[in-house]
Amino acid sequence: MSNPSLLILAGDGIGPEVMTEVRKIIDWYGAKRDVTFDVSEGLVGGCSYDAHGTPLTDDTMAKAQEVDAVLLGAVGGPKYDNLDFSVKPERGLLRLRKEMDLFANLRPAQCFDALADFSSLKKDVVAGLDIMIVRELTSGIYFGEPRGIIKEGNERVGINTQRYTESEIARVARSAFELARKRGNKVCSMEKANVMESGILWRDVVTEVHQAEYSDVELSHMYADAGAMQLCRWPKQFDVIVTDNLFGDLLSDAAAMLTGSLGMLPSASLGAPMENGRPKALYEPVHGSAPDIAGQGKANPIACILSFAMALRYSFDMGTEADRLEKAVEDVLADGLRTADLLGEEGVSPVSTSEMGDAIVAKLDASL
Ligand code: IPM
Ligand code: MG
Questions:
Q1: What's the pTM?
Q2: For atom 1 of ligand 1, which residue has the closest CA?
Q3: Fold type of domain 1-110+262-368
Q4: Contacting residues for 215 by C-beta, under 8 A, at least 6 apart
Q5: Whose C-alpha lies nearest to ligand 1, atom 9?
Q6: What's the pLDDT tens digit per position in 48-79?
Q7: What is the CATH code for 120-259?
Q8: N or C: which end of the chain has fewer CB within 10 A?
Q9: Which of 49, 142, 214, 314 is catalytic?
Q10: Residue 192 among the catalytic residues
C-alpha cells in the first residue's frame, strides 16, 4: 500500500511557523513509528495572491482533491484588507471547503487541567471541559444566493441568504449523532427556529434523523442565542453541539475562549468518504493568522499540532497515535511550558514556537 498523502498549505501570518513544528511531528512519526507520509506543499491565502493573483490556484485545488488529507495553517492579514472581495485570502479557504464538500466541521473545546486558570470563567466551570461543536461548513448564509451589494433607489443594500436543503441538514446531523455515540451520547442542536424558517426546517430534519436512525442518542434543541448564554453559564452540560455555518462560527469562538486560549484548539473539516474509504478532509487550527505576532517565534503551535492529531484519528484511523500526541501536549503543559499566549503565572517565562515543538517531540520520544 502506498504511503498516506498530505498536502500542507501553511498560508499566512503565523501559519508557516506553526506548520514548521507540525513537520517535526510528521518526521517523528516517519522516524520512530514507521508511518511515513508523502508530504507536498502549496500556497493558500495572501501568499498565493502575492504569487499568482488568486488566493487558491486551480492546480492547488486539484491537489487538495487528490490527497488523503490537507493540513492548513492560517490565512489573511492586514496587507490584504483592501483587496477585492473575490480575491481576499479567506476566499481560498472557502473554496477548499466548498469544492471538497467538507460539510462537517468538528471543533472540539477541551480544557487542559494545566490551563484551567487561563479561562476567563471560574475554574470549576471549565475544568475537565470536553465538548465538540459540529458546524455545518458548506452551506447556509456563507454560500446562499442571492448575495451581494445592490443599489435600490439612492442607497445600497447588502444581501445574504440563509438557505439549507433537507439533505444538507440531515448529513451534518448524522455526523453529530455518530460522534456522540463515541463520546457522551448527547447532541444539542442549535438554530433560531423562533425567527427563521431555515431554523424550523433545521429542527424538523434533525428530529426526523434522530427518530429514524439515532433514537439511542439523547437529543435536545436550543435557540442559538440561548445556547451562547448556556455555553458561558455551564458549558459542561453539553457533549456534542450541532449547528449551522454562521452560528457555528460564532459559538465555536465562544467555546474556544472557555478553554483559555485560542492557540490550543484544533479542527477537522470532513466530507464524504473517498474511494479509499477515507473521508475528504482538511485540518486546521481554529485560530487565525495573528499578523501582530507573525515571524517572532511567539506563536503557540499546539492548535496546529493537535489538528494533526485529529488527522491521525479521523483520516488515518490511528486513534492510539492520536492519543499519544495529545498526551505529549498535555505533558509539556503539565511541566509548565508556556508560549507567550499562555502567560500570567508568576515566574514563568515564555518558550518560543520551536521550543514548544521540540518539547512535544521529546515527550513523544519518552512515550516509546
Ligand atoms: C473560521 C474563520 C473563517 C470562517 C474565516 C477565516 C473565513 O472565522 O474558520 O471560523 O468564517 O469560517
Ligand atoms: Mg471563525
A1: 0.95
A2: 249
A3: Isopropylmalate Dehydrogenase (3.40.718)
A4: none
A5: 286
A6: 999 999 999 999 999 999 999 999 999 999 99
A7: 3.40.718.10
A8: N
A9: 142
A10: yes
